[in-house]
TrEMBL record:
GO process terms (BP): removal of superoxide radicals
One cellular component (GO) term of this entry: cytoplasm
Protein name as annotated: Thioredoxin reductase
Keywords annotated in UniProt: Disulfide bond, FAD, Flavoprotein, NADP, Oxidoreductase, Redox-active center
PROSITE patterns registered for this protein in UniProt: PYRIDINE_REDOX_2
Gene for this chain: trxB
Length: 318
């Protein structure tokens, strides 16, 4: 029996673990298949406060983990297969059959960026391929960029990247865009944005030194292949929250993101909290995730003290 179990070890989960451990709650932190979250696939992190010269993503996550361990957090590697929030103590069934029990749960399993699944993509993530314009746009100052996608996120990322790039080419497999009219108009009104519609991405192309040189695409009208030259390829086709393992144990929105009470990390289950990208459809930044991890730990502590009033769970469950 644990006072608190944290599921997930990105910036949100590790920050929650630090705060819980410092409160002498001795949390158990469950690491999944990617300990440290998406930042472990990032090279240089320059927008996390406190590091004037930047810091490598894996180093930042390792430092946060060691900090949590220093204060008494316990870590366990494994995959959560199923949860039971119907009764207290809450139960977590691990892969292999072990069942863990806790008075409170913090879910910080994040959201995974969707990828194209084409050759040259995964092996160049962090080395010319990115899914986060806010995180990596600065590194492409004065360079050519390709953005793949046709929704609001793609339009927003393309417009944002024009602050740094010499040009941004937006690639979409259809002629029609899914983005709202206002977002389309904003992108079309930007003279730095170029368009390569009706093109299906085939491969991320690199030179003999492994440097990204562009995106190979197929023209869906002529069926001819062509290279869209670029120094960086940004994939903006959405994110998938990592909530499948929860089943219907907790309330999520239509996309699968956990619904929390605004301004808190409270879910519709008293004693279960959510932080980081698993409940964030808007910001998805390391610093906002870490901040919400702090909130979750403090909410959790108040709940265990008996000072938290739950006056909204019935409304959420309707």
């Amino acid at each position: 029996m644990y006072k608190s179990i944290v599921i997930g070890t990105g910036p949100a989960g590790l920050t929650a673990a630090i705060y819980l451990a410092r409160a002498n709650l001795k949390p158990l932190v469950i690491e999944g298949i990617q300990p440290g979250g998406q930042l472990t696939t990032t090279t240089e992190v320059e927008n996390f406060p406190g590091f004037t010269d930047g810091i490598q993503g894996p180093v930042l996550m390792d430092n946060m983990r060691k900090q949590a361990e220093r204060f008494g957090a316990e870590f366990r590697s494994g995959w959560v297969e199923q949860v039971d929030f119907s009764n207290r103590p809450f139960k977590i069934r691990m892969e292999g059959g072990d069942t863990l029990e806790a008075e409170t749960i913090i879910i910080s399993t994040g959201a995974s960026a969707k990828y194209l699944g084409i050759p040259g993509e995964q092996e160049n993530v962090g080395r010319g391929v990115s899914t986060c314009a806010t995180c990596d746009g600065f590194f492409f100052r004065g360079k050519k960029i390709v953005v793949v996608g046709g929704g609001d996120s793609a339009m927003e990322e393309a417009s944002f990247l024009t602050r740094f790039a010499s040009s941004v080419t937006l690639v979409h497999r259809r002629e029609e865009l899914r983005a709202s009219k206002i977002m389309q108009d904003r992108a079309r009104g930007n003279e730095k944005v170029q368009w390569a519609l009706n093109r299906t991405p085939i491969a991320v192309v690199t030179d003999e030194n492994g440097t990204v040189k562009g995106l190979q695409v197929r023209n869906n009208v002529t069926n001819q292949e062509e290279l869209v030259e670029a120094d960086g390829v940004f994939v903006a086709i959405g994110h998938t929250p990592n909530t499948k393992f929860l089943g219907d144990a907790i309330r999520t929105d239509e996309q699968g993101y956990i619904v929390v009470k605004p301004g808190t990390t409270e879910t519709n289950i008293p004693g279960v909290f959510a932080c980081g990208d698993v409940q964030d459809t808007r910001y998805r930044q390391a610093i906002t995730a870490a901040g919400s991890g702090c909130m979750a730990a403090m909410d959790c502590e108040k709940y265990l003290e008996g000072s938290m009033v739950h006056d909204w769970s019935e409304t959420l469950n309707k």
